[in-house]
Amino acid sequence: MTDREVEQAAARLARMRVQGWCLRGGGSAVLVAAFAVRGGGAPLQAVLLALAALIAGTDLVRAARVRMMIERLALVPEAYAIGAVRQFGTRAASPSQCELLAMRLRDIIAHAAEQPLVPERVAAYQSEIEELSVRLGRPGARLGPPEAVACRRLLTRCAESALYNRRIPAEDLGTALRRIAAGIS
């Protein structure tokens, strides 16, 4: 990611935050107007309440898009120049989160048959998954933020994960596991 791309991503995140403020402010104003309508204004009040709900829903979608954008950017070390990305990655790489990732990796091996995994991939990469869980579970183990986010996505984003999705080449699982392992210190 180039410096210009980082700047563009930061600017887009800033615009999306401003949109959120505007949506929340507009939604609040519509709610106040809905409750200010009295007397025979029940139909108007219903329309204003529906508009406020629509605005709130729009803001929820915007917030989810911001979160997904930050999560994708957190895979790229250069994007850590953006404060929100740095915060997200730092949280993802915290000791408690690393222990959680190690536990989840152990669960994959122990309960592979009970999960919606691609079993032959778990079997093919079992030793790498076990080694990764052991290394992450050691006291004082540290994982780089981009690798922590990559591990988290491997375990939670089924549509994008070679652990869960047969349409993704099996080799991608090995590549992801090696990338994550390389980030452990």
Describe the structure.
The structure is a single chain. The chain has 185 residues and is mainly α. The protein is 72% helix and 0% strand. It is built from eight helices and no strands. The longest helix has 34 residues, at 3-36. The radius of gyration is 22 Å and the shape is elongated. The mean pLDDT is 91.
SSE topology:
Layout: H1 3-36, H2 42-73, H3 83-92, H4 95-110, H5 119-124, H6 126-137, H7 145-156, H8 171-182
Features of the shown structure:
185 residues, mainly alpha, 8 helices
Radius of gyration: 22 Å
Which class best fits the helix and strand makeup? mainly alpha
Please give the largest β-sheet: none
Q: How would the global form be characterised?
A: elongated
Q: Give helix % range.
A: over 70%
What ranges have pLDDT less than 50 throughout 5 or more consecutive residues? none
User: So how many helices?
Assistant: 8
The residue-averaged pLDDT reads 91
Brief description of this entry?
This protein has 185 residues and is mainly alpha-helical. The protein has 8 helices and no strands.
